[in-house]
Amino acid sequence: MASPMLNKVEYTIDGAHGKPIVFDVTLPATESSGVVVFCHGFKGFKDWGHFNLVAEEFVSKGFTFIKLNFSHNGTSVESPMDFVDLEAFSNNNYSKELDDLGMVLDWVEKEVHNQVYLVGHSRGGGIAILKAAEDDRIRKLVTWAAVDDFESRFPQDLERFKREGVVFIPNARTNQNMPLNYQFVENYYANEARLNIRQRITEIDIPYMIIHGTADEAVSIDCATSLHGSCEGSTIRCIEGAGHTFGATHPLEQDQLPEAAQEVVNLSIDFFKGNRAI
Question: C-alpha angle with apex 194: 272 to 265, nearest 5 degrees?
Answer without folding.
Answer: 20
